[in-house]
Design goal:
Blueprint: E1 3-4, H1 5-8, E2 16-18, E3 24-25, E4 28-29, E5 40-42, H2 55-60, E6 65-68, E7 80-83, H3 87-98, E8 107-112, H4 117-130, E9 135-138, E10 143-145, E11 148-150, H5 159-171, E12 176-180, H6 183-187, E13 198-201, H7 209-212, H8 215-227, E14 234-238, H9 244-247, E15 254-259, E16 266-274, E17 277-282, E18 285-289, H10 294-310, H11 314-321, E19 332-335, E20 341-345, H12 350-364, E21 370-374, H13 384-395, E22 398-401, H14 411-419, H15 424-428, E23 430-432, H16 436-446, E24 452-456, E25 463-466, E26 469-472, H17 475-484
Parallel strand pairs: 4-5, 5-6, 6-7, 8-12, 8-13, 9-12, 13-14, 14-15, 15-16, 20-24, 21-22, 21-24, 22-23
Antiparallel strand pairs: 1-3, 2-7, 9-10, 10-11, 16-17, 17-18, 19-20, 25-26
Length: 487
C-alpha cells in the first residue's frame, strides 16, 4: 500500500515543508519502533512520551517523511519534514486519508458521556442488524466488523487502528458504524479526520479526573466531539442532564433531545420495572423491553431516537426495541435455585452506583435486602473512592469493599481510601476483603432468599490487573460459582 505524499498533505494544515512532496509513502506510523524506509513518521506529544525525541532514530531508517510540531535543528537529505501546529490532529487526518476516508463511506454515529456509551453503541449496532443491514461496532467490550469480532484494548482506538477498522467495515459491505467516543480520544485528537453522521450525549458525572484534572476539562473534552460535527449531522442530547444543552451550544449539527422527565423530541417513560424487564412508553407508544432500571430507560430512549435519526423506519424500530437484549456485564442477573439474585454490573463511578442501586431498591422494595461488593481501580482518580463507598453504603444493607483492578497500587491502600468515606454506622455494616473472589463468595453466602447481591465495577472484564499483570478473573464466573455453592 502506497500513497503520494502530496495527496496526503491535502488533508492537514501545514506550516512549512522542507523537502520533496512528489514521492510515494509506503507506510504511516506514530510508533518509532515500527517505521520503515520510505514510510511516514508522525511525532506525537503524548501523556508520558514525546515522539519528537525519536526523530533522529527514524531519520536513520531513511523514512520518506517526518511530521512534527517542533522542527529538528538539522535535516537529513532525502527526508521531507512537515511542520504542523498539532501533530496529534495531523495523525488523525493522515490516518483517514491513508485508508481512503472510510468514515465518509459509512453512516458513522458516535456516543459520548460518562455512563451508557457501551450500551447505547452496542444496541444501535444490534438495531442495524435487526433492520437487515451490515454494521460495525467500536466499543469498550469488543469491536465488530459486521459479525467478525475484533478484540479491543481501548474505548476508542488510536487513529491508525480506528481508520483501519473502519476501512475493513467498508470492505465488508457495512453501511453503518457505531462507536464509543471517550473523553481521552477527543482530548488526544484520535477522532480527528472522521466524518460523523451523528453524535449522542448520554450524561456527565465525575470520572477520569486523574487524566483531565478538573470536571470542567472533562466536560469540555466531551463537548469537543459535538463541536466537530458537520452541519448535516444530528446531535442527540439528554435534556435531563444539566450538561446536555451545553454540549451542543457551539455545534453545527442539528440538535435533537431525549428525556424521561419533560417534553423532548424523543420522550421515554417507565411504566413498570421488574428484575427481568421494563414496560415503557416511547413517544406515547407502549413497548416491553428486556432491560431493567431508569438508567437503561435513558439508554433505550436515546437508542430509539438515534435509530430514527439514522434513517431506520420508526415502526420497525419500535418493534425491534423489544428484541434487543442487555450488553454483557451491564445489569446482568443471575439467580440461584433458592431465590438469591446477583447482579453483575460495570458501574465504576459514584453516579453509576447510584443508578444501579436505586434500580435494585425499586425492585426489592424498602424491606428487601441489598448486599453490594465493590472496589475502585488503582492508578486512577483517588477522589471518587470515598464517594463510591459512601453511595454504596447508604443504599445497601451490607457492603463488602474489595479489590477491583489495583494495577500498581497496594489493594489495601485503595480500600482504605474507600473506607474514609464511611461514617460509624456504615462501617458497622461493612467488611473489607481484599481477595475479590472471596468477597463475592462471602456476599452470596451471607444472602438469604429474596436478597439481591450487586457485584459492581468490572462487568464484562475477564481479567484483574495486579502489578501490571492481567490475571484471568470474571465476575460472572465467580458469581455463578458462588451461587452454585448454595445448592
Amino acid at each position: 500500500m502506497t500513497s503520494k505524499l502530496s495527496t496526503l498533505l491535502k488533508d492537514i494544515d501545514v506550516i512549512e515543508v522542507i523537502g520533496e512532496t512528489d514521492k510515494n509513502i509506503t507506510a504511516l506510523e506514530s510508533d518509532s519502533r515500527k517505521v520503515e524506509k520510505d514510510g511516514m513518521f508522525v511525532a506525537v506529544k503524548g501523556v508520558t512520551n514525546d515522539g519528537h525525541k525519536y526523530i533522529p532514530v527514524v531519520a536513520s531508517v531513511h523514512v520518506g517523511a517526518i511530521v512534527c510540531e517542533d522542527m529538528p535543528a538539522t535535516f537529513e537529505k532525502g527526508i521531507t519534514y512537515i511542520h504542523v501546529a498539532d501533530s496529534a490532529e495531523a495523525l488523525g487526518k493522515l490516518a483517514s486519508a491513508w485508508y481512503g476516508h472510510p468514515s465518509s463511506k459509512l453512516k458513522l454515529v458516535g456516543v459520548t458521556g460518562t455512563n451508557g456509551k457501551t450500551t447505547t453503541a452496542t444496541l444501535l449496532y444490534e438495531m442495524a442488524k435487526l433492520e437487515g443491514f451490515k454494521a460495525g461496532l467500536l466499543s469498550t467490550v469488543c469491536n465488530y466488523v459486521a459479525d467478525r469480532a475484533v478484540p479491543t484494548t481501548h474505548t476508542t482506538p488510536d487513529p491508525l487502528t480506528l481508520n483501519e477498522l473502519l476501512a475493513e467495515m467498508v470492505d465488508e459491505g457495512c453501511e453503518y458504524a457505531f462507536m464509543e467516543v471517550s473523553s481521552h480520544s477527543t482530548a488526544q485528537k484520535r477522532v480527528a479526520g472522521l466524518r460523523f453522521t451523528g453524535g449522542i450525549f448520554t450524561n456527565l458525572t465525575r470520572d477520569h479526573l486523574d487524566y483531565h484534572g478538573t470536571v470542567e476539562n472533562y466536560m469540555n473534552a466531551k463537548k469537543a466531539f459535538f463541536d466537530m460535527l458537520p452541519s448535516d449531522a444530528f446531535a442527540l442530547v439528554n435534556a435531563d442532564d444539566k450538561c446536555g444543552m451545553y454540549m451542543v451550544q457551539n455545534t453545527k449539527a442539528k440538535v435533537y433531545t431525549y428525556s424521561l422527565r419533560s417534553d423532548a423530541d424523543f420522550r421515554g417513560k417507565v411504566l413498570e420495572t421488574r428484575l427481568d424487564g421494563t414496560l415503557m412508553l416511547l413517544n406515547g407508544r407502549e413497548v416491553e423491553v428486556q432491560f431493567t432500571g431508569r438508567f437503561n430507560a435513558y439508554n433505550l430512549t436515546d437508542v430509539y431516537g438515534a435509530s430514527i435519526l439514522t434513517g431506520f423506519d420508526p415502526e420497525e424500530v419500535l418493534v425491534n426495541m423489544s428484541r434487543l437484549v442487555p450488553v454483557a456485564g451491564r445489569f446482568q442477573p443471575f439467580i440461584s435455585k433458592d431465590g438469591v439474585a446477583a447482579i453483575v454490573d460495570y458501574a465504576h463511578t459514584p453516579d453509576a452506583l447510584i443508578n444501579v442501586l436505586d434500580t435494585i431498591r425499586e425492585i426489592v422494595g424498602a424491606d428487601g435486602e441489598i448486599i453490594t461488593v465493590v472496589g475502585a481501580g488503582g492508578n486512577r482518580d483517588h477522589g471518587k473512592r470515598p464517594m463510591m463507598a459512601q453511595e454504596a453504603a447508604c443504599r445497601s444493607d451490607f457492603l463488602y469493599l474489595t479489590s477491583d483492578n489495583p494495577r500498581n497500587e497496594v489493594p489495601e491502600d485503595i480500600i482504605a481510601d474507600m473506607r474514609a468515606g464511611l461514617n460509624r454506622d456504615e462501617l458497622e455494616r461493612t467488611e473489607c476483603i481484599t481477595d475479590r473472589r472471596e468477597a463475592i463468595r462471602q456476599a452470596v453466602k451471607r444472602a438469604k432468599p429474596g436478597t439481591v447481591v450487586l457485584v459492581a465495577g468490572k462487568g464484562h472484564e475477564t481479567y484483574q490487573e495486579v502489578n501490571g499483570i492481567r490475571h484471568h478473573f470474571d465476575d460472572r464466573e465467580e458469581v455463578k460459582s458462588a451461587l452454585e455453592e448454595r445448592i
